Amino acid sequence: MAAGQGPHNAGEYIGHHLTNLRFGEGFWTFNLDTILMGWFTGLLGIGAFYLVARRATSGVPGPVQGFVELIVEFVDETVKGVFPGDRKFLAPLALTIFVWVFMMNLMDLLPIDWVATATGAAGLHQWKPVPTTDLNTTFAMSLTIFILTIFFSFKAKGAGGFVHELFTAPFGGHPLLWIPNLVLNIIEYLSKPVSLAMRLFGNMYAGELIFMLLGLLGTLAAVSGGGVVAGAAAGVLYWGWAVFHILIILLQAFIFMVLSCVYIAMAHEHH
Amino acid sequence: MEQFAAVIQGYTALGIGIIIGLGAIGACIGIGIMGSKFLEAAARQPELIPQLQKFMFLLAGLIDAAFLIGVGIAMFFGFANPLLGVLAK
């Protein structure tokens, strides 16, 4: 970037790095960087697993296959603990969610200035590399889980059973209790996708923002008189947050997967 | 005009502090209670530590959720304050 062209203060820097590459206007705005990075991370993650599965041996596995088997077994154990029924659909869904969300979150560890330079060289002025910092991604996934929950509720209880349960659980079958039951059930059903989406979004967005703020803190401390020592001290803080964020990335992917499985398992329950 | 902008910004800054502060209180007390129960259970039955640890991390993520959502919203007000939009009209 030429001198004078870049951001002039901390606010502009952060604002520039937190804006998506948009296409279209109003309701029909597409965040191109979210879509493309979502596909890229999905292909990378799921594609890697597919390539390993194609050449899988039932003898002694190599290190890559061993690693993939580790993850698949871990997800299978988790799903088995949550949903004792037939998990031919749920376990692959859980594996997809876990791997894809983890790969998307992993993009948060890329230095944003390097991403900005690389995409700037390709002619794009904004690029957010982490799709899960976009509410669109997280709500898309949680709404899909919500639709699956409703679908499985219908399948397990039948249409009549599902409506009956909406009106009579949890307080009881007396007609006076139908409205409170319905209100409580609507709140419960709506809070699940919203909380699922907002949890992942909030963690990733705040994480990225704190990365930027700590970087700016280091720069300002070094430039405004602290010198190398102050900059290095801020760098230690930055490193500490990066280590913590690696845990958060894994944890949030795991939580999204477990909660999706729990909601779908709950949809199979009868009262 | 600057006075109005200053008033809005001042109150927004207060709001950001309250959101993050109260959220942090809740999250930290929650993690403290959960951690103490985990330590008690681990001391009583050390062979259950791996399983309990898995649930502990899950719960930690859930407890932190509302706090981090609050931090996200507060940061949004810090850098792209929509309340200042009324000044532009």
Distance between the amino and carboxyl termini of chain A: 63 Å
Helix % of chain A is over 70%
Strand content of chain B: under 5%
Average pLDDT taken over every residue of chain A: 86
Describe the protein's architecture and organization.
The complex is a heterodimer of chains A (271) and B (89). With 271 residues, chain A is mainly alpha-helical. In chain A, 75% of the residues lie in helices and 1% in strands. Chain A has one domain. Chain A has helices at residues 10-17, 32-54, 63-82, 90-106, 112-121, 135-168, 178-267, and strands at 22-23, 30-31. In chain A, helix 2 crosses helix 4 and helix 6 (135-168) packs across helix 7. The longest helix of chain A has 90 residues, at 178-267. Chain A is globular. With 89 residues, chain B is an all-alpha fold. Chain B has one domain: F1F0 ATP synthase subunit C (F1FO ATP Synthase, Up-down Bundle). Helix content of chain B is 88%, strand content 0%. Chain B is built from three helices and no strands. Chain A binds chain B through residues 11, 14-15, 18, 195, 198-199, 201-203, 205-206, 209, 248, 251-252, 254-255, 258, and chain B through 57-58, 60-62, 64-65, 68-72, 75, 79-80.
Features:
heterodimer; A: mainly alpha; two-stranded antiparallel sheet; globular; B: 89 residues; mainly alpha; F1FO ATP Synthase
Task: Show the helix and strand layout.
The complex is a heterodimer of chains A (271) and B (89).
Chain A: H1 10-17, E1 22-23, E2 30-31, H2 32-54, H3 63-82, H4 90-106, H5 112-121, H6 135-168, H7 178-267
Antiparallel strand pairs in A: 1-2
Chain B: H1 2-44, H2 49-79, H3 85-88
Helix pairs in contact in B: 1-2
